[in-house]
Amino acid sequence: MNRKKAFALPYIVWMIVFTIVPLLLILFYAFIHKTDTGALIFTTEYIRSALSGSSMSVLLLSLEYALITTVLCLLLAYPAALFLWQLRSRIGSIVNLLFMLPMWMNFLLRTYAWRALLDMSGPINRVLQWLGLPGQQLLYTEGAVIFGLVYNFLPFMLLPIYTAFTKIDRSYVQAAEDLGANRWQTLTRVILPLTRSGIITGVTMVFMPAVTTFVVSRLLGGSQTMMFGDLLENQFMLLKDWNTGSALAVVMMVLMLLSMALVRKSDDGVMPGGM
Fold first, then answer.
1. Rounded Cα gap, residues 62 and 68, in angstroms
2. Which residues contact 45 (CB under 8 A, 6 or more apart)?
3. pLDDT tens-digit map of 44-72
4. Is there a contact between 115 and 217 (Cβ–Cβ < 8 Å)?
5. This prediction's pTM
6. Residue among 226, 254, 258 nearest 59 (CA)
């Protein structure tokens, strides 16, 4: 037992230094105000400021973008995972690897690449002009931001869903077909329930990071689009207002905990293997 505790000690130290201590600092700056005399008083002023109209509008916009991104990723990833599952195992693994290849490249570089592609002088507009069509303002739009979010987070939806597919016993599908179920009934009554755990995991892995991202909105949306991650960065890095920034972080943490609780509640009825 002592040896096991010794092996766990580095992890415990890591969690304390890089997780617990930063969380305590965020809570301290969010609820403690330092007066001119140096006294520390408890206050909810910064939380009220974080819940003000301008901050809430940015938060609601971020939630809207994250929800749209999650739905689009699910609509794209589920058929792709189903297609990969129906392929022979070796071919499916190769195609799945091709889907995962973008994840090997830096997130920032991928976003910069799409910025060049969507620019007025980029390849897409050049093709449109070659076809005799007028150039389109694709960059610095809401569509560009959502497109960038979907592109960057799609693998995080595909991988858990495909993993859930690989755990399905194909005899269940054969049994449903033997009992007279058509393809749609087999999909909705057999395959979909068995892959529910993968869907929930994918939704969690896409929705939560999409709410707090700031690189995509800045590079593809420009100054016209601000998401909650941009607001947080501005408070900490630009305005040096750690109190308001920490309050915004607390609001985001509460929302993340509520989202995780809802996801866990919906996942309670899912047995291992997706059943």
1. 10
2. 33
3. 899 988 888 788 888 889 999 999 999 99
4. no
5. 0.84
6. 226
